Amino acid sequence: MKKLLHKLMAFRQRKVILRSSKSRYRKGFASGFTLIELLVAALIASLMVAIMLGFLVGVLDSDRKETVKTNAQEELQAAISYIADDLQESIYIYGAEGLAAINSQLPHTQATNTSECNPTSNTCTPILVFWKRFTFNPDSTATYSNSAASPTSEIIGCMPYVVAADLTACRGSSSGGNRAYGRDTYTYSLVAYYLKNDTNLTTNTWSKTARILRWEIRDGYAAYCSNGGALTTTTSGTNCPEITKVTKRLPSDTSGLILTPIPLVDPNNYFISPSRGFNRPDFTTSGVITAWKKFADFQFAFDSSNPTLPFSPFVTLVDFMDDTDYSVTQGGNTVAAGTGIPASATAAFKIPIGTNDASTPSKRNLDCDDPSVGVGTTDSVNNFTQRVPADFANTTSNPSGLSSFYACVSPNTVTARIFLRGNAIVRLATPSIAKGLRQPTASNITFFPTADVRSFGRSRIGLGK
After folding, report:
1. Angle at alpha carbon of residue 110, lines to 104 and 115, rounded to 5°
2. Per residue in 372-403, is it b (16+ CB within 10 Å) or e — as a string?
3. Domain boundaries, the chain
4. pLDDT digits (tens, 9 = 90+) for 203-255
5. Distance, CA of 66 to CA of 427 (rounded, Å)
6. Angle of CA points 259, 265, 271, to nearest 5°
7. DSSP E strands: which ranges in 61-123?
8. For the chain, first and last CA: distance in Å?
9. CB of 309 closer than 8 Å to CB of 276
């Protein structure tokens, strides 16, 4: 009986275990996923990720475009502010006619051994050319051009001096002296701003669009007791130039510096040498200043035969200027009959200021205060304004062939309004986007920031007719 009972209990236990296993199997099967379900879920997830990535890429691309636009606008504004500040020290600004008169004396027609602007591959247009005051830093030191001077250098603010005691007081101790003598020591300099077309540039240094270049030459600082004698020498004669020579600011007794250009090669008479090729202008009449000539036989580029004279290189002010070739559809070269207002233009951007037109006396725009009126007329007292370049389509007045930098100039009132136009599209790709793909259209005009400002010179020199 016991054996039978044990067999029944064992059979029942095996049946319960089997039923439990089947139940667990059915339960696990019911809570799982088929392969098809898993693939569908993966496809949906992939689509959602792709949508989110596309949205993210769009946001990043939009942000990148806005960033380059902002950078282009900021750089353009910084450049035009720099030019305006520079013009505030000007005393004479060349108009289109005056610029044409001195064109052959400027560096783009002279500096034959430079890589920037030269006659053999001229793509540089002079836009703003003016005379200005250059003030020396009175707290800096300069070395005499004559190495035999003793000492060989001096604090600029201590020159000139008359007696040794004054020089000692000016130098002072390590904490500095009074610097009373040279605080307002200045000279004149000639500044030129160029628009350079870099479309055919072969190097990778710049954007291969267009740039604004700045160039400057300046007068030297006349020497005082710099011909080899001790600086403590106070008597006129052998060691020190006479005071009358100093006030004339001539390099020697016999120099015809203004009337007859001669090379400044005498190192005995300059505390700071003038720039290579510099010639002092005569500011008495406009006819003389527009006939200015550089020193004869001097190139503005480096001259190994005269290494003592400072070399004045072109300096890039701002890159990424618009290099769209000028076309008549941009306007600017014609005006509506009898109005002085530029004729209608069909290009994506329009040149707002009209050509030099003498037939509309009511539209003289004498102070360049109206950026939408033609210029170039002359009134009864010889006041006039002129646009530079005078003719965008002329290869002589506009060698670059571009219109992204131009100006309205009033020489008589020492006033100028400057116009700049940049190109942000080219910043989006490296290497640069092909020229045909970065031209302005109605849909991308926001990538071409513009800026204009009117600037007034420091003073007006006494020019007659």
Report:
1. 135
2. ebbbbbeeeeeebbbbbbbbbeeeebbbbbbb
3. 65-136+185-220+273-456
4. 778 888 999 999 999 887 765 544 443 444 444 444 443 333 333 333 333 33
5. 11
6. 95
7. 90-93
8. 147
9. yes
